[in-house]
Amino acid sequence: MGLDGASILIVGGGSGIGFAVAEAARAEGAAVTIASTNKDKLVGAAERLDGAKWAVLDITDEKAVEAFFHSSGDFDHVVTTAGDWGSARRGPFVSIDMSEADALFQVRFWGAAILAKHAAWHLDDGGSITLTSGMSAFCPQKGSVMATAMAGSIEHLTYGLAVELAPIRVNAVFPGGVATEIFAGLPEEMRKTEEARFASQPLPRISRPEEVAQAYLYAMKATYTTGQVIKVDGGGELAG
Ligand SMILES: NC(=O)c1ccc[n+]([C@@H]2O[C@H](COP(=O)([O-])OP(=O)(O)OC[C@H]3O[C@@H](n4cnc5c(N)ncnc54)[C@H](OP(=O)(O)O)[C@@H]3O)[C@@H](O)[C@H]2O)c1
Fold first, then answer.
1. How far is residue 19 from each of residues 46, 83, 147, 172, 216, measured CA to CA in Å?
2. CATH number where 197 lies
3. Does the beta carbon of 234 sit less than 6 angstroms from any atom of ligand 1?
4. Domain total of the chain
5. Among 182, 183, 195, 229, which is best to mutate for testing ligand 1, by the most ligand atoms less than 8 A from CB?
6. Ligand 1 proximity of 38 Cβ (cutoff 6 Å)
7. Strand order in the sheet with 123-132
8. For residue 40, what are the domain limits?
């Protein structure tokens, strides 16, 4: 089943991986709605997507998510790449501020759970929800305890939802390093450390967003795939 004519909501579609998913889905003939919190970003992205709809939506706000789905109508597929980059991502665990660590889960874990809960009422059988995990779930680095736990929690949310919501399909994409705007904006030292890490992978480079986007398209189109975490990490997990 292709995406031509399919109606797809992409939360996080105003930038980075989500934008690449929106672009690839549009190229296959899908009707795309992008959503996130920053209106200016969405308007600019929708223009570049040539005809995408946009909606301001904070997925940590359950009432807003419920109201959004009531007014938007149904979708064939829902994707989220929404994430913030909280300050508790890196640092010694023994010195961590637990309220910041808690905040790290708000968008990527709780936001995804809220989105899935309300999306489920607006998807047909065989429709899909695709969440976003990350390499830190399996390749913890020193100083990344809570980022590892958070990425892992998304994968287990995926497994639970796939059973709970079937025959709606629920999968997650596990990106390795992706050269999105956010990566380009990292402090130089951190970016170089990350680049050195990717250089030791079987595919020794960071990925392009459009390479990762293909996994989301697969998750939407693959009618016998559910409860899966699709890894697009250049073999990075194997390199440790
Ligand atoms: N880039 C990588 O190397 C990499 C690797 C592994 C995993 N990931 C994960 O993949 C996801 C996407 O990464 P990216 O590089 O594409 O980052 P990005 O460009 O910052 O995309 C994240 C998007 O989430 C939206 N967002 C943030 N808070 C939101 C909220 N409360 N409700 C709705 N939307 C919200 C942002 O838009 P607004 O500002 O408009 O809200 C933004 O468009 C993130 O979860 C990230 O952790 C990225």
1. 9, 13, 23, 17, 12
2. 3.40.50.720
3. no
4. 1
5. 182
6. yes
7. 53-56, 31-36, 7-11, 75-80, 123-132, 169-175, 229-232
8. 7-231
3-state secondary structure of 25: helix
Atom of ligand 1 nearest to the CA of 58: 32
Domain assignment present for 1: no
Question: Is residue 236 assigned to a domain?
Answer: no
Q: What is the pLDDT of residue 86?
A: 64
Q: Which of 15, 128, 133, 153 is flagged as catalytic?
A: 133
Is residue 167 a part of any domain in this protein? yes
In a domain? residue 216: yes
Q: How confident is the model at residue 60 (pLDDT cuts 50, 70, 90)?
A: very high
Q: What is the pTM of this model?
A: 0.97
| Ligand 1 close to Cβ of residue 107 (< 6 A) | yes
- What's the per-residue H, E or C state across 46-89? HHHCCCCEEEECCCCCHHHHHHHHHHHCCEEEEEECCCCCCHHH
> Binning pLDDT at 50, 70 and 90, where does residue 88 land?
low
Distance CA 231, CA 236 (A): 10
Task: Please name the residue ranges forming H helices in the chain.
Answer: 16-27, 39-48, 62-72, 98-105, 112-119, 145-165, 181-184, 188-199, 209-221, 236-239
Amino acid letter, 240: G
Instruction: Please give the distance, rounded to the nearest whole angstrom, from the Cα atom of residue 182 to the centre of ligand 1.
Output: 8
CA distances from 6 to 30, 36, 105, 130 (A): 5, 20, 31, 15
